[in-house]
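Lab notebook: predicted structure, single chain.

Context: the supervisor wants predicted structures on file for every construct in the current expression panel, including those that have not yet been purified. This is the next one on the list. No modifications to the sequence; it matches the entry in the shared construct table.
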Amino acid sequence: MATYTEQVGNKLNGLLEKNYDAEKGYAKAAENTEHAGLRTFFNRKSQERRTFGHDLKSEIRAFGEDVDKGGSLTGAAHRTWMDVKALFSADNEESMLEEAIRGEKASVDEYDEVLQEASLPSSTKSILLSQKNIIETDLFKVKSLENLR
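Prediction complete. Output recorded below exactly as produced.
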């Protein structure tokens, strides 16, 4: 069985932080849309990212690493940007959806980076692949939401 290195622990905590940020960002987006379909989508994604975070925390702890708490400053700034965009944009639903797509694409890249780590235990690799696949599947589905207006 592969062991966690400090670098792997840091990378997993980075993913955990991004999931915290995404959870809060999706919840904020759901609050800022009047479109029922988008609100449902954003709420589902928020809950999904909450579950991802819990799964990552459990995995990190299972291998004796410390779990970082909270989200990032970048995530807080992103949520603030979404609030401002919602207030001043005539196309706020479309803008929030485009920002969600951009964030999900970045998430896939971050998961890919961590998955390249040679010392990942199989249980961790399995969790990361599953989460990444869910994100990628939703990226393909989200294109249909762009035409909801």
